[in-house]
Amino acid sequence: MYQDDPEVFAPPPGQTGAAAVEILSAEKTYPDGTQALLPVDLRIQQGEFVTLLGPSGCGKSTLLKMVAGMLEPTDGRLLVWRRPVHQIDQAGRKMAFVFQAPTLMPWASVHTNVRLPLDLAGVARKEADDRVAEALDMVGLGKFARALPRALSGGMQMRVSIARGLVTQPDLLLMDEPFGALDEITRHKLDADLLDLWHKKNLTVIFVTHSIHEAVFLSSRVVMMAARPGRVVEEFRIDEPYPRRADFMVSPQFTRHARQLQDSLLRASGFNDAEACA
Amino acid sequence: MSSYPASPATKQKRTPLLARPQVQRVLYPVLVGVVLLGLWQAMVSIMELPPYLVPSPILMVKTLVTDWAALGMALLTTLKVTVFSFLLATVVGVLISFLFVQSKRIETALFPYAVLLQVTPIVAVAPLIIIWVRNPTAAMVVCAALVALFPIISNTTLGLRSVDPDLQSYFKLNHATRWQQLVRLRIPSALPYFFGGLRISSGLALIGAVVAEFVAGTGGQGAGLAYQILQAGFQLNIPRMFAALLLISLTGVALFVLMAWLTKLALGSWHASELSQD
Fold it and tell me: CATH number for the domain including B199?
C-alpha cells in the first residue's frame, strides 16, 4: 500500500472524518437538454452508510453511477479517496457495485459467478477459490457453490450478487436498489445482513432506495432527492445506535424518523401535505 | 426443499403412459405417418395406379433395398458434401460474425453484402462456381456453404451483441479486457443464438448440396442423391426416385435431430429455451 497520504490511509474505525467520496458540483445534462441532475455537492465520510432516497426520476441512480464511474458528469468532479474513481486501485482502495437485478451469468455456477471479479483481476486460482468460499459463507450460501443461478430464489441470487461484490474486499460498496424486487421478509433479512457486513468489514456504503423504512433502518445519513429536475433537497441524520435489530423498526424513534422522511419525500414528490392526507 | 408433506397434486400416482408428453411427442407424429402411409398404399392399390406414376410405399422401400448399392453410395456422397459445407459455413460464418462485432462500422459496411449473398439464388450462381472451382466436390461444397452461411452470420452476430447491459457494465467496472469480455461474456451469451443458426443452416446445407448436384450434374462413381433423382427421372424409374427422395428427407431429419441434441447438450442446464415448461 502507498503511504504518501496519511489522511487517506488513516485506519478507519467507524467514521474517522476522512472523506471517502466527494461530489463537487457534479451535474448531468443529456445531449437533448434534459437535466437529469442539477449540481450536487456531497461529502461522504469513511465508514458512513448513506442512503439516496427519492421518487423515481430524481437522479439517484444517475448520481450513484457517476460515483462508480459508469457515467461521466457533464460538469463538476467526483473524487473517491481524493482521486478520480478510475484511479482508486492505485491508492489500494476498491469499490464494488451491486445492481438492482442480480446480474449473474446464467451459464456459470454460483462459485464461478462470485469468482468473476477476481478472475478479471488475475488473482491466482487457489487464493481466488478460498476467497469465494469465504464470501459465500458470509452471505450464507456456502452450500450452493455448485448450483446454477436459476436454481436459486430471487433473494438468494441477490445474495450471490452481494457476495460477488464483497469478494474483492471493497472499501466502498455502491448499491442501486438492490433489494427492490424482493418480498418484504427477504428484504428485511438482507437489510440486517448488510448492516452486519458493513459493521464487520468497515465498509463505506452508498445505498439507493425508494423505501423510507429501509432508509431509516440502514442509514447513518439519508440524502433526499427530488425529480424534474433531479436534485438534492434535504439531508437527515439517523442518529440511532448500531447494531440495529428488528425491534428498532417498531420503536418510537424509528417512527419519528420515518415520519420526517415521509413528509420530506412527499414534498420532494411534489405533493403538499393536504393532498397527501386526502 | 421444504419438510412439508407433499401436496395432493404432487403425490398423485404415476402418469399413464399415453398421457406423458415424451411419449405423445413421438406417438402423435408416428400415428399421422402410419395413417398417411396407409391411405397412400390403399389409394395405389384401389385406383391401380401404375408404379411409373405413383409407386406404393411398399414398392419404395423394396426399391431402396434392391438398389441400395447405388443409392447408398449416392447418400454417402450427398452426406459428404452436406457435412463439409455445413462445417465450412459454420467456421466462416463465426469468423465473419467476430469481425462484425469488432465495430459497428465494419458491420454497417459489410452486412449488405452478406444479405446480397443470401438473396442471390444459388441456382443462378452455381454454374459460375462450378466453372471456377475445378474439383466438382469442392465446387458443390462451396455452393452449399454459400446457402448455409447467412443464418450463422446473422444469428451469431445478433448473439454476440445480445449481452445483458448490466453484466457488460459490470465487466467494464472491473476493467475487463476486450479478450476477457469476448471469452467470458460475449461468447457464452451468443451460444443460444449460435445454435439456433446451426439448426437452420444444417437444413440449408442439405438443400444447397442437392441443388449443387442438380446443377453440376456429375454422374459416375461419385454421383449424389440428386443425380440419382435426375437419372431416375430420365429412365422413368419413379420408385427409385421416391427411394432417393426418402433418403434425402431422412438425412434432413437426422441433421435436425443431431442439432437439437447438440443444443441440448450445450445449453440444457441453463438456457430458458431448453428448460422444461413445468
Answer: 1.10.3720.10
A151, with CB counted inside 10 A (0-12, 13-18, 19+), is: middle
Q: From CA B263, how far away is CA B272, in angstroms rounded?
A: 12
- The CB density around residue A171, as the number of other CB atoms within 10 Å, is 22
Going along chain A from its start, the domains and CATH numbers come out as: 18-94+171-270 (3.40.50.300), 104-169 (no CATH)
Task: Please report whether residue B134 resides in a domain.
Answer: yes
DSSP designation for A86:
G
Q: Is the pLDDT of residue B144 over 90?
A: yes
List the one residue out of A242, A230, A264 whose CA is nearest residue A64.
Answer: A230
Q: Mutate which of A105, A167, A173, A177 to disrupt the B interface (most B C-beta within 10 Å)? A: A105
Return the pLDDT at A2: 41
Residue B96 structural domain: 55-265
Eight-class DSSP state of A122: T
Q: Across the interface, do B185 and A105 touch by the CB < 8 Å criterion?
A: yes
Q: What is the pLDDT of residue B127?
A: 86
Model pLDDT, residue B274? 65
List phi, psi (to 5°) of A213: -65, -40
d(CA A94, CA A69): 13
Q: What is the pLDDT of residues A111-146, one digit of tens each?
A: 999 999 999 988 999 999 999 998 998 888 889 999
pTM: 0.79
Structure confidence at residue A276 (pLDDT): 43
d(CA B108, CA B98): 14
Nearest to B176 among A101, A107, A120 (CB): A120
Q: Is A151 on the interface with B (CB under 8 A)?
A: no
Residue closest to A195 by CA, chosen among A211, A216, A226, A181: A216
Assembly ipTM: 0.81
From B91's Cα to the closest Cα of chain A, the distance in A is 23
Using CB atoms within 10 A of its CB, is residue B228 exposed (0-12), middle (13-18) or buried (19+)?
buried
